[in-house]
User: What shape does this take?
Amino acid sequence: MKILIIEDEKELAHNISAYLSDENYLCEFAETFQQALEKIEVYNYDCILLDLMLPGGDGLKILEELKKQDKQDGVIIISAKDSLKDKIAGLQIGADDYLAKPFHLSELAARIYSVIRRKQFGNSNIIKLHELQIDLLAKTILVHNEPVILTKKEFDLLLLFIGNKNRVISKSALAEHLSGDIADMLDNHDFVYAHIKNMKKKLVDAGYQNYLKTIYGTGYKWEA
Amino acid sequence: MGSMNKLLNRPLKAFTLYALLVLACSIPVYYFIVDYIWRNELDEYNEIVRNRIESGLNKLSLDKEEWAQTIALWNKTQPGTKIEKSLFQESRSDSIYTIIRQKQSANDEDLERFRGLSSYIKVQGELYHLTIEINVEEAHETVFAIAAVTVLFFIILLAGFVILNRRIATQIWKPFHSTLDRLKSFDLNSQNNINLEKSDIQEFEQLNQALYQLIAKNISVFRQQKEFTENASHELQTPLAVLKSKIDLLMQNESLTESQSELIASLNIPLSRVSRINKNLLLLAKIENQQFSEGELVNMSELVNQNLDFLEEHLRARNNTVEMEICEHCYITANRSLVEIMLVNLLLNAIRHNYENGAIRIELTDKSLTISNTGTEPLISETLFKRFITSSTSTPSSGLGLAIVQEIAHRYDWKVDYHFINNFHQFSVLF
Assistant: This one.
């Protein structure tokens, strides 16, 4: 899987790359508007991470260029601006997702995973993992071909884990994933624990092996 | 403003007092002048009378007996004058005098003032003593008349002052009041420059110019400050993102011990708070800079229910009961995201500052939204809505939640109220 990180903050770009590198992802970098234009013209990527404020130009222009060239690359906007206007403009031009800085890498990885799945599998988007089957469109799961009913939050958590296999996800990242913007307004992240416990119980009861490991009570890791 | 004086009333008072003083002083002065002229005129008159008598008598050619009869008759018929044979041989110089005595003719007891001339005349070789007396107006009568006239003029003057003052106040101060009204309605936040009425009075025009300069400077400083907040917050997002991603990366290290892992995870909490403060500052700057599109019809009933669902687990975690009284199909016109931010901030506030097993009440009508939660003691309402001033010591917060609520309400001219009633903190927004 090829990913292009268009981001002028080198440190951030390399952190993203380091986090993604374990999983079959190959990252390339573009630091300026010009570099980005050159790269998208020559290569195709499975997913492009696009910062909007770039030296040399507006990131939205790159998005327009992609659409003009009729490229099918998935695009996730990562912006410091968090403005609704930019978000709507970006999504209208054809971005697949919008993530405001600062974000957890696990959140980004889950979104990249989801964008790539959508691009690759379209209407029959089913993830198979050992005895687990997840239908991303219908939002249903099967364990040993038997349906398991998860709440929306449990399902969201499962997807976050699947998008971050073999990586430790902190409680804080899980809380943000579940409550979005308001997670950091709630200083208590214990509610995460209840959801994970319930999800785990449902899966294990249905005969799924326990792949979800607790790491010192500070985070969780899905081992697969 | 009860004890405050209007500007024009001060000179009016001073003018009135001054006029009173001058007029009061003028009374004795007038009296002395009038009396002086009066006496002079009478003296002249007496002199004329004396000369006329002297020449008149000299023209007569009478013998001694007739002469004596004439003088006796004269003294009887001419009450103001008296002719007597002189006791002296030599003529003496004239003398003038004032005497106060009873009138000869009248019966009343009134004392009258007389101006007299005592003179010696020579009639046909004989020296006679002639006294002429004429009635002068008495001093107290003159003073009274002058005082009465002066008081009358003073009243006319005072009435004139008051009327003129009133007229000047309404006319001359018109541009001033217009400037004052516009200043009162001026809102620094609106970024609109002020437009003051032109005046042909130099002082007011100077005032207007000074105000223009002051306001222009204020607007520019205010704008710079707001831009600074927005830019600073933007600039902070990227380093925060780097920090957050570093922590995420560090957590992947498999050789971490438990204490190291806990240390790293604990970094996320202050980091979240910094991110939240930064986001809130950015949000405040955006609201102030009017970067939110105006309005749409927002279904409040639906919005409250949606957000309650969202927060349900947090309510459950603290075992809080919720009482709701929500009107159906209540709409307000505002920016949807702003209304939602306001609502979430109020709800979170109620959850966060509540104790376990406490209660939360939500009441929505088409005129107001009231969210109350159980509490132990009233919060300091003066500083409640100020930025970064936490009114409670129990839970740390970004210190901006209520400031944002206030700012959003301010934008739509809604009123935010806080009351502590029956152990309930009650926040209400009046649409």
